[in-house]
Hints:
The protein is α+β, with helices and mostly antiparallel strands. It folds into 2 domains: 2-59, no CATH class; 64-194, Beta Polymerase, domain 2 (2-Layer Sandwich). The protein contains 8 helices and 5 strands; from the N terminus they run ααααβαβαβββαα. It has helices spanning 2-19, 23-33, 45-59, 64-81, 91-95, 114-122, 168-171, 185-194; strands at residues 88-90, 104-110, 128-133, 139-149, 154-164. A 5-stranded mixed beta sheet has the order 1-2-5-4-3. The longest helix is centred in the first third of the chain and has 18 residues, at 2-19. The protein is globular and about 50 Å long. The protein starts with a helix and ends with a helix.
Amino acid sequence: MESVKEEIAATAARLVVEEGLEYGPAKRRASKQLGLPARAALPDNDQVERAVEEYIDIFCADTQPAELRALRQMALDWLDRLERFRPHLGGAVWRGTATRRSDIYIQLFCDDPKSAEIALIDMGVRFDVSAVPGFQGETVDALSVQVRCPELGAHIGVHLLVYDYDDLRGALKPDARGRRPRGDAAALRNLLHDGAP
């Protein structure tokens, strides 16, 4: 059973790195590609993340650090632009497992949820709105933008997830590995300064 989960995790890791899939869709697609039944037990996200880290170490060690840095610089620009909404970076760009195929995920903690949309309109930023699962399973609005990243020569998806201000307290609790699941602009500057993965 555990070896099947490891095989799913390894296949999912390839899909995450090479195609930019999120963990959930990558696990389901990996299971299907491996010909497993629909009810097969899937690995947890921590197991997939370890497989992603291994995949990057083996296949992307020469390119991933520069790609991660470019994405973090881009994310920092958005954190600074949206400072009044207490933005926090999450996802692969924060965790250090992002590649050129990864999108940027920023959580905004707003007193008024519509204020973020109004701010983007005032900045002249075109965006799409969708409803996505939040970090505690609740539904939140995602304001999605496609932004050109000159360093990578590609357009990157920037997703701004809009939360209530009160949600900020629970957003900073450490994950199962003791890491902060997201960080603000100051924390991101520290990562960039230290060159941390």
